[in-house]
Structures are given as structure tokens and as C-alpha cells.
Amino acid sequence: MVLPMRSGAACGHSVLSSTVLQDKLGTKDAHTYAAPFFRHDSTERKAVALRVVGLTKRYGTTAAVGGLNFEIREGEIFGLLGPNGAGKTTTIAMLATQRQPSGGDAMLFGHSACKEPYLVRRMIGLAPQEVSLYPALTAAENLRFFGRIYGVKGAELGGRIHELLALVGLEAHRDDHVSIFSGGMKRRLNLAVSLVHRPKLILLDEPTAGVDPQSREQILKIIGGLRDNGNAILYTTHYMEEAERLCDRLGILNEGKLVAVGSLDALLSGLEFAEIIEVRGLPAGIDLAPMQALGGVSRVERGEGVVRLYVKRATDFLWPLQKIIGRQNVHLKIAPLSLENLFLHMTGRELRD
Q1: What CATH class is the domain 272-336?
Q2: Does the model's pTM come out above 0.85?
Q3: Which of 119, 146, 229, 233 reaches 20 to 30 Å from 96, CA-CA?
Q4: What is the longest distance spanned by two Cα atoms in the chain?
């Protein structure tokens, strides 16, 4: 989770946030028993925390990441979504100064990740997808170990340990060895370790992967509270509902390039279609040309026994579609636009592919 500091790379002293984390868990919806959406005011007027310019990573002639450009502001969760192999992990590794870019740079409050990696690293908290804890140590000992790596000491570190264990709901387990923790408890401690030095930018790579619903809900609440406290957060997930719920803006990554960046509302409103008609069970050779000739059909997709029609208004196409289908035994579904639809449209793949 935390790499030892590299000597000779620092330029000046690290400026660490003094904001005290608060557990803004909020209340649950009376009908769904789910935490409320963490939507809040536009972040456009807030200061830019991270500016990524032309960030590139090549391995030989292969560009794993090709010229990324985006910003993350203070008090904003930026969701980075992409199918497996899209370049998300490589991007996070470069932002965390674990890998040297082949081109471009990332500026954290004006400090270059390429030229000042030691300084930038001290301003970043990373919670990787693979839990990085020492199972033979207790929860408190893990926090103490990583805190010392970042130069947090003495009474400050003791107070920080107490604060973070309370934040992630593990204060009753501070002296228990991590080896006996459940997956959800490890994930929560993994998140706490990334916060021990009060980072200004938090990189969260699949922070809820493989956890139980209760732990997932608690982790999402914590992340929403961190954002409300002014932290800049980059968030990757395979769960569409999490991205829709948490993220102020989204970047969709495909084959190493950003194919879309913006708020969910802005991205959806920019499309030429508003609804999707999905038909399962049509014969492979059925002719859909009459549908496309009607106008208002932006796109037709076929694959694995499914036909998707991207249209402006689904009701305009039900009768023409009935004529084509005839007596075929098919399953038809009409869906409004969603992040999942957008993702499929932009990448041609499901997020979990």
C-alpha cells in the first residue's frame, strides 16, 4: 500500500492537509435502507487538486495508456471506469509515482509527479485493489507502521490511529491480528491505512471488491464523508451503481484512452438516443433494415443472441418491431439511459468483461 520514500527525489517539504476527518455517515433512506446519494454542488469553482496532461505509458510499441488529460478538484470524486485491460491500474500506478510515465505528467497542487515524486507521494493516499496489510500485526500496529513510513509520530500518530479506527468501525478490534479479519474488515482497514498521513489526493482502486453488503455500505459512506471534507478522490470500480451514486464526474477509459469525460447527466444528454430497446431470442438472420430506415434509430447492435436498438423514443418503434418479430418467441425490454448503457455504447463491452 505504501512504498518506502526514495531519497534524492524530494524538492522542499511536503505540505500535508490538516483537515480532520469526520465520519459523516448520514442517515439511511426509510424505504430502501440505503445510504443517501452523495450528490452536492458543482465542483467547477473549487481549486484543481490534480491536473493530468498527456499522461502516457508505453511498453515497447504498445501504448497501455495514451495521452490522458483530465482534472480532479478538491471535494470531488472522479470515477475512472473501463473494462479490464483498459489501462486503469497503469494510470493509478503512474499517479501514485510507482511507475514512470513514458510521456506527459500529473501535477498535484502544482507539484510534478515526474520531477518531484517523493513530495507528491507524501500527498497521496493509495488503497490498492489487492489488500496490502501485514496479517501478523494488529489493526493498530498496521496503522502505526504505515504512519511512521510517512513521518507521522508520537501523540499525533496515536491520535490518528484512534480516529481512523473509529472512522472505519474497527475500534473494538484495534488489538486483533489482521489474519483473523473478515474480507470487509480488511478492506476498511486498507482504506484507513491510506488516510493515516492526511493525504490531499486519495486513489481508491476497487475499494469494495469482494466485501459483504454491510461493509460496502459503510465504505461508501466513509468515502462520501471524505469528499465532503474537501478531499480529491480518484475512484475505480466494477459496480455501476457505486459510480452513479458517488461520482461527481466520470472518465471512461477504453484501450488506454479517455473516450468520455464529464458528469453523468452531461454525458447522457450529449447522446443522440434516449432509450434502448433490447430484444433477446431473435433469429440471427432476421432483417432489421426496415427499423433503421424509420429514422430516430441511432445505432443497432447485435451480439450473443441480443439485439439492442438505440432510439430517441421507444414507443415509436414497438409496432414496426412487432411486424418484424411476427410470432417469434422473444424477450423484449425497454430501458432508459443509464451509466451502464453509456459505458456499453462507448466501449462496446460490459464493465465486468
Answers
A1: alpha beta
A2: no
A3: 229
A4: 76
User: CATH fold of 48-263, please?
Assistant: Rossmann fold (3.40.50)
Which residue spans of the chain are classified as CATH 3.30.70? 272-336
Helix (H, G, I), strand (E, B) or coil at 293: coil
SS3 155: helix
Print pLDDT tens along the chain (353 aa). Answer: 444 433 333 333 333 333 333 333 334 443 333 344 444 456 667 899 999 999 999 999 899 999 999 999 999 999 999 988 889 999 999 999 999 999 999 999 999 999 999 999 999 999 999 999 999 999 999 999 999 999 999 999 999 999 999 999 999 999 999 999 999 999 999 999 999 999 999 999 999 998 989 999 999 999 999 999 999 999 999 888 999 999 999 999 999 999 999 999 888 887 878 888 888 887 777 777 777 777 778 778 777 778 888 888 888 888 888 888 777 778 888 988 888 878 877 776 554 44
**Set of cell numbers at residue 192:** 484507513
What is the DSSP-derived secondary structure letter of residue 75?
T
